[in-house]
From TrEMBL:
The name this protein goes by in its record: TNase-like domain-containing protein
TNase-like domain segment(s): 402-692
PROSITE patterns on file: TNASE_3
Classification via InterPro entries: SNase_OB-fold_sf (IPR035437), Staphylococal_nuclease_OB-fold (IPR016071)
Keyword Hydrolase appears in the UniProt entry: yes
Hydrolase listed as a keyword: yes
GO molecular function annotation: endonuclease activity; hydrolase activity
Family annotation (PANTHER family): EBNA2 BINDING PROTEIN P100, SERINE_THREONINE-PROTEIN KINASE 31
Keywords: Endonuclease, Hydrolase, Nuclease
């Protein structure tokens, strides 16, 4: 560990980015020490030996929305010599900077700060040029762009900062201001993957949630280190077994360092990548929605705000697989900003066409190479609604009928789940490690299991992912709505479980004294008969899988009412490559059978499906989305449907009944009739609850009434609804600790200062 003691005696300065750079470089080198930052060794020389170099640096000047000048930091004393305490104290906390809405930068009246004091007029100061890989931003010239008087062009301004862009591209100032608030005056972690001919660095810029202990407090730094250590230990234990011989260390960072070294020693170079994944998936602040992560990729924030777009250059040079995953995730984030008309995507056409992005061919798909068919299907279905080449319109993603991909992270009971919308494989990997994915059964195996075995199993089922069960329980209840969407599975009502949900320890008495009629009877103490069995059946089908969710609206408890589809092949890693290809080959064949595909295609399989849908979209075929869904339902793979409806499966097993409460959403009368038919069939066959005594057949609605429960828990006001909108990308962020108001148009000139001082809701991206 590098000494990070400040110049003042007895005062310790912690720079998390510096510690992370030293740790990652030492393991990449295969030896102790930070070769990338040692004197006499250039970054270009280091990159000749390995693919990536990590470097801590103080950002000293903003060039534009993707380019900065910075000064490498190899010790805490370097930072103290460059920035005095008064200047450092003026830099707002990272968590506040991440929450500023993009509209604040678009409508700012004054030019942003573009450099720190030590960089002003100091020709002897050596600064390094660094450019974010994978994104492009509007050009800006700080020497000329801010000379215009706002009053001289007030009648012509489309957005309030336009007068500062007269000598620049549209929204160039807004883009630079966003990057300035994020990184200027902070020590960040640079992941350098290339050096250009002029000596400029290119790569990723990673922003820790806490950058400076003297400004943000030692307690926040300690919290960051504690969370990183806890996350790494929990995930490693769940995926690869406990860490043995963990040495005692001094301080919170010493523990992070010791844990990381053991993981890297266990798995070599792969361990470095896993450590970064653990850090990216660590939640630092769950009081906002989406939560602030321990480490944030600055490029993703710029894309999310709509103040940058995906560039054409190589995105990640560590490996072909990682490059593809990063590209797909960035394209998905960009598409979300475009859909919601944030930043440059809100410009009128005459201004938008001045940007380089207007001249390149737009890519609508961000999941073409995904391991998860549900991700690609969601992209295909959304593309079918918004044909390529059409006008850019603001889309309300919460309109009924929206279909999106989501990862099921927790099963609450037999008809309720918590899920996280995901945009790409990279987002999925934050929550589910490949080793954990491999432990999941195939969809066919989950559906082939005997209902009687599910009812008789005497053990509690797994109801949440390891990455979620490892969270501190003291913060769990408070943060659940800011981290995931509580979703009611449409059209069904399953037996209730005990208050508090399925846990491995339970309290309370059984309300029934009859003879035990099924094996999991004891697990239902405090709840309703077959409550745990229904939870197990749903968990076997959806937990840890990327599923398709069709939004049917919200109920009175502000839960999402969702129709959940599980594709017959849910994960290429689990179902293997040949099943993945067979799934899309069957879909393409069915589309041909319906006359949707005419002539020959250049490719087959998943690429062929994508090409076919693109052709149909260009022809503006009506009802294309519903037709594709019908094809998916009609194909058969291992005697199961291409898309499995979770509600239908629960009714087929006899572990749920058709819900008949108020304002029920069935996705149409035809689907309601189908659900009732499945319930009647289960009754005739005596499946599940229908083959047990009458006390096991009590209507869940009657049970809730008798025991004073309601179906949705305690009402949450509008907070749950606003968190749902934020997780779906409709709004930029929500303050989960209090009800905060929206920015009014008349307050835009002071919104940026207000947002940074009080932590206004704003942007935060899950990488």
């Amino acid at each position: 560990m590098v000494a990070v003691t400040g110049e003042d005696e007895g005062e310790r300065l912690e720079l998390p980015a510096l510690n992370l750079a030293v740790l990652l470089n030492s393991q990449t080198n295969g030896q102790e020490g930070n070769e990338g930052q040692s004197e006499g060794r250039t970054v270009a020389g280091v990159l000749e030996k390995r693919r990536i170099c990590y470097q801590a640096a103080l950002v000293s000047e903003i060039v534009d929305g993707r380019t900065v000048r910075c000064m490498p930091i190899s010790a805490a004393g370097d930072f103290s010599a460059l920035m005095d305490e008064d200047e450092a104290a003026k830099v707002p906390p990272v968590t506040a900077a991440l929450r500023v809405p993009s509209i604040v930068y678009v409508n700012m009246e004054e030019p942003p700060q573009c450099c720190i004091k030590c960089a002003v007029g100091n020709a002897n100061l050596k600064q390094q040029l660094f450019q974010l890989t994978g994104i492009e931003a509007p050009r800006v010239d700080f020497n000329e762009a801010h000379l215009a008087d706002p009053s001289s062009c007030s009648l012509l301004r489309v957005y309030r900062s336009q007068h500062m862009d007269l000598q620049a591209e549209p929204m160039g100032t807004a883009s630079a201001a966003s990057l300035s608030d994020l990184v200027l005056g902070r020590v960040v972690l640079l992941q350098i993957d290339s050096v250009d001919g002029d000596g400029g660095w290119h790569g990723r810029m990673l922003l820790p949630a806490v950058c400076n202990s003297q400004v943000e407090g030692n307690c926040k730094v300690a919290k960051l280190y504690r969370l990183l250590a806890s996350r790494a230990v929990a995930r490693e234990r769940a995926l690869h077994g406990p860490l043995e011989n963990l040495p005692e260390s001094e301080g919170e960072w010493g523990r992070v360092e010791a844990i990381s070294r053991l993981i890297m020693k266990r798995r070599g170079a792969k361990g470095v990548e896993d450590i970064l994944t653990f850090f990216f998936g660590t939640i630092f602040d769950s009081s906002v929605c989406p939560p602030t992560m321990a480490v944030t990729d600055v490029a993703h924030v710029m894309l999310f705000r709509g103040l940058a777009w995906v560039g054409a250059e190589t995105l990640c040079k560590s490996s072909k697989e990682n490059r593809v995953q990063s590209e797909q995730h960035m394209l998905a984030v960009e598409e979300g900003a475009e859909t919601q008309s944030r930043g440059v995507w809100s410009l009128p056409f005459d201004l938008f066409e001045k940007l380089p992005v207007a001249n390149r061919r737009r890519r609508r798909f961000s999941g073409e190479r995904s391991d998860f068919p549900a991700l690609l299907i969601a992209q295909l279905l959304n593309h079918a609604l918004a044909p390529e080449g059409g006008s850019r319109k603001r889309g309300d993603q919460m309109s009924q009928g929206l279909i999106f991909a989501a990862l099921v992270v927790r099963v609450v009971d037999g008809d309720t789940v918590r899920l996280v919308p995901v945009l790409s494989d990279e987002a999925v990997r934050i929550h589910v490690d490949p080793a954990e994915r491999q432990r999941r059964s195939t969809v066919k195996a989950a559906m082939s299991g005997s209902t009687r075995w599910i009812m008789d199993c005497p053990f509690y089922p797994e109801v949440e992912l390891s990455s979620w069960s490892s969270e501190e329980k003291s913060e769990e209840k408070m943060s659940m709505d800011t981290r995931s969407i509580l979703t009611q599975v449409y059209g069904i009502d399953a037996p209730e479980v005990r208050v508090g949900g399925v846990r491995h320890r339970y309290t309370g008495r059984c309300d029934y004294t009859q003879t035990v009629d099924y094996g999991s009877f004891d697990l239902d103490i405090g709840g309703q008969p077959l409550g745990v069995a229904a939870t197990r059946a749903l968990a076997e089908l959806v937990l840890g899988r990327v599923v398709l969710v069709k939004n049917l609206g919200r109920d009175r408890y502000k839960r999402l009412i969702g129709r959940i589809f599980v594709s017959a092949v849910s994960d290429r890693l689990v179902d293997k490559e040949h099943k993945y290809k067979e799934f899309f080959a069957a879909l393409l064949s069915r589309m041909r059978g319906k006359g949707l595909v005419e002539g020959s295609l250049a490719t087959t399989g998943v690429e062929g499906v994508v090409e076919a849908v693109k052709r149909l979209s260009e022809k503006k075929v009506k009802g294309l989305q519903s037709t594709i869904l019908q094809c998916l339902h009609e194909i058969r793979l291992d005697n199961i449907s291409g898309l499995v409806d979770a509600s239908e499966e629960m009714l087929r097993r006899g572990l749920a009944i058709v819900y008949t409460g108020e304002r029920v959403m069935y996705d149409g009368n035809e689907q309601k009739d189908r659900l009732c038919c499945l319930e009647d069939t289960a009754k005739r066959r005596l499946c599940g609850r229908w083959g047990l005594p009458e006390y096991c057949q009590i209507d869940p609605k009657d049970f809730r009434h008798e025991h004073g429960r309601n179906r949705g828990g305690k009402p949450r006001g509008t907070l749950r609804q606003r968190c749902m909108d934020a997780l779906l990308g409709i709004t930029e962020a929500v303050n989960g600790s209090q009800e905060s108001g929206e920015v009014r148009n008349g307050e835009l000139e002071t919104a940026r200062t207000h947002a940074l001082s009080v932590g206004m809701c704003g942007c935060q991206v899950i990488v």
